Every structure is written in structure tokens, then in C-alpha cells.
Amino acid sequence: MNGLNINQKRLLQSIKESSAIGATPNGGLHRLALTIDDQQMRNLLINWFEEEGLSIRVDDFGNMYGRREGKHPHQMPVVIGSHLDTQPCGGRFDGVLGVLAALEVVRSLNEANVQTDRPIEIINFTNEEGARFEPPMLGSGGVCGVFEKDFIYSRQDKDGIKFRDALSDIGYKGLEENRLQKAEYFIELHIEQGPILEEEQLEIGVVEGIQGISWISVTVEGEMNHAGPTPMENRKDAVVAAAKMIESIDKLAQEYEGLKTTVGQLNVYPNVPNVISGKVEFIVDIRHEDDEQRERALEVMKQQLSTISGLCDVELTFHTSWENDSVTFSEKVIETISKCAGNRNLSTKRMFSGPGHDAKYMAEIAKTGMIFVPSHRGISHNEEEFTRDNDLVNGANLLLDVVCQLSGAKIPKTI
Ligand SMILES: [Zn+2]
């Protein structure tokens, strides 16, 4: 600990102001990317950047940057931040905490007149959630070269509005030359979105990386027929086959420690009560922190599904619709977070993130790490998402210490 602390009241007040933009009746947020609400939140962030004397940039994906100069402007910056967009009826903290805590870190450094060797840049990434424009993490993916500009610009929302037009409409289509070019470090503070820290009564998650993920699209084809006259033994019922498959997918997770399997979407054709279904489509979401384990589990799953399709006399096809390998964060950043948490006597646990985050792509261009704070009952992407004030403040103070450490901060002796 270096004697410097963030201003708890000011941090909570900023989160409160964010919570009013796109507020839902039940205390959540509905602030989809590049909407009027997103614009209003962005305008507020610009005001806050200006108040701190930061130099402000907006890039061609709408990512926003507030830069605090270092003693050595040519050195690569320490970048901190996350996203301000939310899911439909999402929570007040997912993403928001990472941006507003980053702002609070800079406010605290300014207030205490702390000079750093490296510049510090706050970043607000566009469309992290993927709720309006799929896929998620378009802003960070654009900056890190994961997605082409044309691909990002041509994404459409459900009303057919293109990303590029939505960006222009809210006045946040900036310049390509404003993109983050280089960064030495990227640190993202985020709520856990899982129940582990709360259950184990721990204060901080030191995130080691992000689980790999595969989406396998499965199509089961049987024979559509009338529910009344068709004898039970002659049926090729795609729903019955799919149900057995989904059960085996659920059980598969018991065989591999740390494996998570989910079927969250099911399309039944023709989806009529008195017709034996001829076709079912579903997507398997399968995650593990070890890519080899995930791949092994996938092979076993495919074999099991093939066996079931044979027994049920239905046709089966798979294809991989999305795949991302796991990401391991920088050992140096992980160590720094652990050490700084220890200095503040915060209890910690090393863990992998289940959800994806902007840090996943940033890890491709910078030494990256994440700090998690507890989420009440692990609820997220939901209006009931909640993190206690104390945990928000712990996370922000830890972020401050990590930034000081990595940016070469000179803390005045009077503090
Ligand atoms: Zn998030």
C-alpha cells in the first residue's frame, strides 16, 4: 500500500449517475450499444474526462480514450477500462465498474499530484455485450485486429440498422488514427458474474485467463408426422432424440473437471402440439480453461450424440459455429495484482473467467490482467446484478495500486 486511496464517495456517486442513464424500473440498466442512452453516457464520460484535463480521442469504432500524460510520453501506456454498454435489462455494474473505477483512479492521481513514468489511458470499448450487434467485443476486437473494419461496420441490429450508421447517428464515429496503437499493460476491473468469491467469502479474484469456448450447432432430423395415427414404435421423433442428446451433454460436464456445457437455445420444427417434430436445431456452448480438455470433451460429446441418433433412427449433423481458444493473462500482471492485494490485506483467489471480456482481445497486444470483485449470488446480465459498495471500493483501490506500480508512480511523501 502506498498511502493513496480512491475517493469512495465520488466513485459511488459516478456509478449512481451512470445508473440513471437507461435505468429500468427494477433497478437495472437497459443501455444497448450506440443508442441514445449510450450517447448520453458517453457525453457524460467526455465531461468527466475534460474535468480531469485528459486528452480525449474517439476511434473509428467509437472506442473512447482519455489519456493522462506520463513523465515519459514516448513510453507505452498503462491502459485501464472496460465498457459502458449493457444487456437488455442488464445490471448497473457489468463493464461500468471497470470504466468508472479507471476514471476514479485518474481523479485520485490528479488530486494527489502523482506523476507517473508511463502515460495512463482510460478506455471505454464499444459494443462489448454483443446484445445489439453480434458478435460481442466488437470495439476491442477491432482495435486488436481480431475483426476487419468492414465486418464491424456491416453488423446489423434486429431492425437492420448497420453498426456504421448507428455510430454516425450518435456522433461517435471517430478516426482510425485515434485507435490505441500500442499498450504496455491492460488492466480490467470487473464484477465476477459468478458466485465463487461470495460463496467462499473472498474479496478479490485474481484472474489468470479466460476459458476457451466452442459453439457447436447441432441439427437432428427425424420424420414429421401426425401425433394421433402414428404408432409410437414407428416414430422418428427429433424432439425425443434431441432431449436424450441434451441430457447426455449435461452429464458430460461431470466427467471433466471444470467443463461447462449448456444448451440454451432450441428450435423445434414445425413446433406444433399435435405434430411429431421432423427437425430440431440446438447450439451447445462448451467451455474449459484448458483447450485440450475442451477438445477432448467435444469429441466424446460427438460420439455420444451419434450413438443416440442411431438408437433413435434420426439424422445428425454438426458444425462449429464459433470457437475461441482460452487466453492466459500476463504472469507479471497477475503477480502484481496478487502482491498489491496482499499489501491491502485483501483476501484473494486465482480463477479463470467463464465469460469473455475485452481483456481477452487486449491480451493479444498488451500484458493483460483482470481483477474480479464479488457478484451477489453470481447474478449478472440481469437487473438484480449487485455488488456491495465495499467490494466496489476494494476493487478500485486495488486497481489504483496496480496502476501506480505498473506506471512507475511517484507518490508525494505528504500523503
Ligand atoms: Zn462486461
Automatic annotation (TrEMBL):
Keywords: Hydrolase, Metal-binding, Zinc
UniProt superkingdom: Bacteria
Binding site for Zn(2+) 1: 83, 94, 190
Cofactor requirements of the protein: Zn(2+)
Alphabetized InterPro entries for the sequence: Amidase_Cbmase (IPR010158), Bact_exopeptidase_dim_dom (IPR036264), Peptidase_M20 (IPR002933), Peptidase_M20_dimer (IPR011650)
Binding site for Zn(2+) 2: 94, 129, 381
GO molecular function, one term: hydrolase activity, acting on carbon-nitrogen (but not peptide) bonds, in linear amidines
Cofactor: record remark: Binds 2 Zn(2+) ions per subunit.
Gene3D superfamilies per the UniProt record, alphabetical: 3.30.70.360, Zn peptidases (3.40.630.10)
Matching Pfam families: M20_dimer, Peptidase_M20
Family membership noted in the UniProt record: Belongs to the peptidase M20 family.
Name of this protein: Zn-dependent hydrolase
Organism: Priestia filamentosa
